[in-house]
Design a protein that fits this description.
The protein is an alpha/beta fold and about 230 residues long. It has eight helices and ten strands. Helix content is about 35%, strand content about 20%. This is N-(5'-phosphoribosyl)anthranilate isomerase.
């Protein structure tokens, strides 16, 4: 199965359009105010209007009040809501109920306990594992602690150079990248973005099962008599 790609930290329509052209499954707009990739609501609305029906749009939140998430959803129309703070299972369920969007619960992984903590989030649509160490990929050994069968998004320090190894190790539903394809915070590098998608496609092709050759049918009696 092909690995999906989510491009996060989108702050402008041009980068969103480029991601869609390359085949992005989703683009993410971050609303966490301290983030250097924060997207202002007015620009997020323009991004969503430009790419709706061609890709999914995610709103990324960190410990935001529920009413604020709902208000921004009503204004922008997210397909996905990504919760990246201390939100508990009940809060995640309420976000899904009040917005109608699919919910991604993200955690930063420093040890196996962080991975197992996601098991409590059974009502969300996706789990996302990010690295506790900025710029570094998640240790693939830690992924073995995951028991849930909820689709996995893998983030954390991914680049065109290492995304292939990450896919082989984790077999995720999707990979999620922000800083690894940037020219500067909030601005994507077109060449690196293209290289990332190419690396994902190359890895998927290498992992695809080789079809077995079709069996050759033995000639029946009638064919044998005709040859005689």
């Amino acid at each position: 199965m092909a690995t999906n790609v989510k491009i996060c930290g989108i702050t402008n329509v041009d980068d969103a359009e480029r991601a869609v052209e390359l085949g992005a499954w989703a683009v993410g707009c971050i609303f966490h105010r301290p983030s250097p990739r924060r997207c202002r609501p007015a620009e997020a609305a323009r991004i969503a209007a430009a790419v709706k029906r061609r890709t999914l749009v995610a709103g990324v939140f960190v410990n935001h009040p529920l009413d604020e998430i709902v208000r921004l959803h009503d204004r922008i129309g997210f397909d996905l809501v990504q919760l990246h703070g201390d939100e508990g299972p009940a809060f995640c369920s309420e976000v899904g109920r009040r917005t109608g969007a699919k919910v991604i619960r993200a955690v930063r992984v420093g040890d196996a306990g962080d991975v197992r903590a996601l098991d409590a989030y059974r009502s969300v649509d996706f789990h996302l594992l990010d690295s506790a160490r900025p710029g570094e990929p998640v240790d693939p050994v830690l992924l073995r602690a995951r028991r849930a069968d909820i689709p996995l998004l893998l983030a954390g320090g991914l680049t065109p150079e290492n995304v292939g190894a990450a896919i082989v190790a984790a077999e995720p539903f999707a990979v999620d990248v922000a800083s690894g394809v940037e020219a500067e915070p909030g601005r994507k590098d077109p060449d690196v973005l293209e290289a990332f998608f190419a690396a994902v496609a190359e890895t998927d092709a290498a992992l695809a099962p080789v079809p077995e050759p079709a069996a050759v049918a033995e000639p029946g009696p009638a064919a044998a008599e005709a040859d005689a």
